[in-house]
Amino acid sequence: MIGEGEAVLPVRVAPEEFDRLVEKAVERIPARFRRRMANIALIVEARPTPEQLAGQGLRRPATLLGLYQGRPLSSRSVFESFAMPDRILIFQQPHEDIARDLDHLAGLVEETVWHEIAHYFGMEEEQVRAAERRRRARARLRR
Questions:
Q1: What share of the chain is helix, strand, coil (3-state, %, to 5)?
Q2: For the segment 101-122, what is each residue's pLDDT rounded down to a tens digit?
Q3: What domains can be seen in the chain, in order of their start residue?
């Protein structure tokens, strides 16, 4: 048990292990959604750039765990010509900085992947947050 005033060291994993956590998180997305995901790149980066932080109105890297870049599926037309792939960026170091342990890290990664994929499907930030609250409540009921 950690006493008052004691710091928790960040969890650190090798990049390959973090990649596996991201892959497992994607596998946990229901198949009906995974089948609809096309022309999208899922990229792991160490940390967000200052430009990415500024673009989100943030200053501290630990506050940005992931980022969706692209045009949401809900706003696309079948008549559009070829487009560059959308990108979902997952940032390793911010996850590690706030994780309490490896299980918590895996849970954070899963939540972030789910969150960014929700943006891909066209959900706005408040809709995603509301859906996350419902998802967590259902998970607690299953325990």
A1: 50, 10, 40
A2: 999 999 999 999 999 999 999 9
A3: 15-71+83-142 (3.30.2010.20)
